[in-house]
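Subject: Protein entry, chain in single-letter code together with its fold tokens

Category: Structural biology, sequence-to-fold work with a learned token vocabulary.

Notation: Tokens come from a learned vocabulary of local backbone shapes, not from coordinates.

Start of record: The labelled sequence and token lines come straight after this line.
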Amino acid sequence: MALSFKEKTVSSTRKRVDGIIQIKGFWGETEREFAFRIVSRVEMDDELIKAAAEEINDRYDEAEKKTEESIWASLRLKKLNGNAYIKDGTT
């Protein structure tokens, strides 16, 4: 699997990132695609954003269960002093 950003917008303070994460399989087919937002208490460089995106993908199933009452699921990020929000793609 390969993780890439289909879209990525970083705020001027570098404390918020919005975009779409795309997961592609071995043959290049899109396996998963979802909107996300990362809100941090510290400035994020590209390495931190990539690490947070990987953690979001790893914990996607956990977040998906939280979207039953809201279209956005919240995850407390372990690698970053911040939170991630994943938008439910079914609505």
Residues 44 and 80 are 9 Å apart (CA to CA). The chain has a mean pLDDT of 87. The longest helix spans residues 46-58.
